[in-house]
Design goal:
Length: 210
């Protein structure tokens, strides 16, 4: 299927989503990997993990119009080796996504929705956030909270953040797409963010930039 979403925001921010329908050989044929990258992808024992890894680089190539190497910092935060863009990456089930910007910080999360989140909601939500969950759209509303907190976690470099004590999502009524607001409060910052969200093919997608 390939690229199914490509959106530009604020002239400097771009979101891309790739649906993985290709097999391993097809994705490999779209890339020119060096020896180190070949060793990396072959080291994954899980076949699905190999497809995810390849699809991220294929999507990045499509968005940039060229291949670019992804490197990771100490907290497993992804970067482009030449620092040309700030990037955030997410993948779940059959979708891979990238948010990138030359000048802004970015955070992105995408999740396939299933009932398993019902068992762990109190592990990542404050009591007041739980109280504000819309029971008519419970699954979707919970996943939007989870994705929002993941996006905030990523935009803040994954440092000194507990999802319950350091991240707060303000009350909102879930729609097919819209905005919500979240705050990061830890030893490094007290900052409020606007988060964009939408749903697609039983996935929830949330991203932010600043």
């Amino acid at each position: 299927m390939g690229l199914i979403v490509r959106e530009h925001f604020n002239e400097d921010v771009e979101l891309g989503i790739w649906e993985i329908t290709e097999d391993y050989d097809s994705l490999m044929s779209m890339l020119s990997l060096d020896e180190k990258d070949l060793i990396t992808v072959e080291s994954f024992k899980n076949h699905k993990r190999k497809l995810e890894w390849l699809s991220v680089r294929t999507l990045l190539k499509e968005m940039l119009g060229k291949e670019s190497k992804i490197v990771y910092g100490p907290e497993r935060k992804p970067y482009l080796h030449n620092n040309e863009y700030n990037i955030s990456i997410s993948h779940s089930k059959n979708l891979t996504s990238i948010l990138m910007s030359r000048k802004k910080r970015v955070g992105l999360d995408l999740e396939f929705m299933s009932t398993k989140i019902l068992r762990i909601a109190d592990k990542f939500l404050r009591p007041e956030e739980l109280d504000n969950i819309n029971k008519d759209q419970e699954l979707y509303h919970l996943y939007l909270h989870w994705c929002a907190k993941e996006a905030l976690y990523k935009i803040c470099d994954k440092v000194d953040i507990n999802f319950v004590t350091n991240l707060n999502i303000e009350s909102f009524c879930p729609k097919n797409d819209g905005l919500m607001f979240g705050t990061v409060n830890n030893s490094y910052m007290n900052e409020r963010f606007t988060l964009n969200y939408f749903t697609l093919k039983n996935y929830s997608i949330v991203w932010c930039y600043k």
